[in-house]
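Most newcomers find our protein records easier to grasp once they have seen one. Nothing more is needed to start thinking about how sequence determines fold. Here is such a record, shown just as it appears in the course material:
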Amino acid sequence: MNNPITEKLHIDELIKQALREDISNEDITTNAVMPKAKRGTVNLLCKQSGVIAGLNVFARTFELLDPETKTTFLCKDGDEVEAGQILAVVEGDIRVLLSGERTALNYLQRMSGIATYTHAVASLLAGSKIKLLDTRKTTPNMRIFEKYAVRVGGGYNHRYNLSDGILLKDNHIDAAGGVAQAIRMAKQYASFVRKIEVEVENMDMVKEAVEAGADIIMLDNMTHDQMKEAVDYIAGRAETECSGNVTKENIAKLIDVGVDYISSGALTHSAPILDVSLKHLKAVEA
């Protein structure tokens, strides 16, 4: 979401869908108390400390309702913000400010919550060579926003979707008839520029993956000792990743395993929101 052209191509329709969900016909309440256009401003207020993410999505939500809406930011994505801090001032038709409020805040709260949680988890890996990865365990129609928030928080993105990379999981291996067979079939099907990652659950599968030439071996739900044994056996012949119920509470215990990557679905599926709100709406002279 760093390229404004690409950003609009990908996110505008998603934001419009969210707005349509909230305004199926009209905003009855706003139309009742504000029958005519009137210019106004409202402050974006942070209600708890964390890492902010999604400011451009927040602003774009109002712009899609009215291009004349202007947002003045007092911080930027990735900043650590404090409770009570004013993050931005939004100016526009008061009817737009009222109707777009909830959708804009939903995006910002969700994305900032993910960035905040990711930042906390990534800080526990500070000083190691390990990269913290997200997964595809994202909210439907929110992946582009949630994976962006992971990056803002200091994490890295695993594959974006099923077209983005080869990851042979347990059911793929069962379908193919074994680890070696699955890797062989993937190599035959995919372009030579594609890396092949395979998920393994025990040492027999580790050995089979190494012998079959896997590029990345994911150690899934293995014990601490099993993972150390696996990394020692792999010995640099493939990149290594561990996964399986990784959270802020247990990730530090995985540092000495020696893997290159740790993936955590919790970054996106379990991060609480960061509480922000729009306050002090007031009319301004045209």
In short: The chain has a mean pLDDT of 95. DSSP finds ten helices and twelve strands in the chain. The chain has two domains: 4-121+272-283, 123-269.
